[in-house]
Amino acid sequence: MRKVMNEHIHYICERIAxxxxxxxxxxxxxxxxxxxxxxxxxxxxxxxxxxxxxxxNKDLDYAIDCYLQMLADVTDETVEFLRTGKYTSTTFAEVNxxxxxxxxxxxxxxxxxxxxxxxxxxxxxxxSFFIDTLPQFINTTKSYLEVGxxxxxxxxxxxxxxxxxxTFTVVDISETSLKFTRQFTGDNRVDYILGDxxxxxxxxxxxxxxxxEVLEHVEDPLSLLLKLNSLLSDDGVLxxxxxxxxxxxxxxxxFNNVEEIRDIVISxxxxxxxxxxxxxxxxxxEKAEKYKIAVLFNAFLQKAGA
Amino acid sequence: xxxxxxxxxxxxxxIFVDVLDDQDVILTYDTxxxxxxxxxxxxxxxxxxxxxxxxxxxxxxxxxxxxxxxxEMVNAISSKLN
Lengths: 306, 82
Description:
The complex is a heterodimer of chains A (306) and B (82). Chain A has 306 residues and is of the alpha/beta class. In chain A, 51% of the residues lie in helices and 18% in strands. Chain A has two domains: 7-119, no CATH class; 121-303, Vaccinia Virus protein VP39 (Rossmann fold), CATH 3.40.50.150. In chain A, strands 3-2-1-4-5-7-6 form a seven-stranded mixed sheet, sandwiched between helices. Chain A is globular and about 55 Å long. The termini of chain A are far apart. Chain B has a single domain, classed as Orthogonal Bundle (Non-ribosomal Peptide Synthetase Peptidyl Carrier Protein, Chain A).
């Protein structure tokens, strides 16, 4: 068995074994999958994260509770999804009042998601795909835009990887999310904008846009992709991720399979430069389809004519 | 539908065998997730949905999260049937 190197990860695993034995089994399998690079990143991450928690008079136990609360929400939503075949919310207004406009919900949700970045295998696989591919675009990226930065972890990686003269802009609908992103990146190169991406237009085009797990949060993902196409420079690159069959308290648009995602990307005037699909559970493709297990789709896109 | 708890346990056992794809699962009221290796978070959801379908009942979210052993699960089913 692989030894868990990081003291914080070790503590989290031990605590979850007590608080949620059924989730603990999945966590143990995930730990087996992770590698040395994971250990190094998790180490740097948790040092920083625990510091942020402490400045807010919180500790890792608080973050673990947030993570388990988020999982409890996902369990409820998944049971309902398997009963009905639909997500519980279908409009932005619903999830806005239920989640984004609720500081209490956003608080545990953001901490929970941030923890999942280092506890979910498919989140680590996606992050690896991003940080392994992004260096190809260092020379061509003078401006970087992230839409819906969530907890800010991807932005922090982009800040570390891209050229120091690159300009960074974040547009997010949630004040809590922007607060998290600011805390986490702590970089004065970033212009943070609170607002709706559909209304965002500062006359600029961006060389690289990141849209991490946002499409499923909007009623009309095609419109969002068209909007981003209009914000992208001619040779620019869009990195996006979105899941199929992934019920959550703030997911609105259901992609039933990866093919539906590819179709919408093409309809929005993009071509896929490279893509990956990561299963959210360690199961065979057959079982994934039978039980509607979420697949996290990732792709780097360019405009169809580029 | 009136069913006594031992009948419910027998039916639940059959559902576990089917969902976990393991003929050797033998449940008692005291069985916990620690006793059945395949009873993980993914399979827990599948078990809940399969049990609901079989018994034509619906669990509340706090029930789904709260069972600490099979006995509590059987009690929850029984209270909805009888």
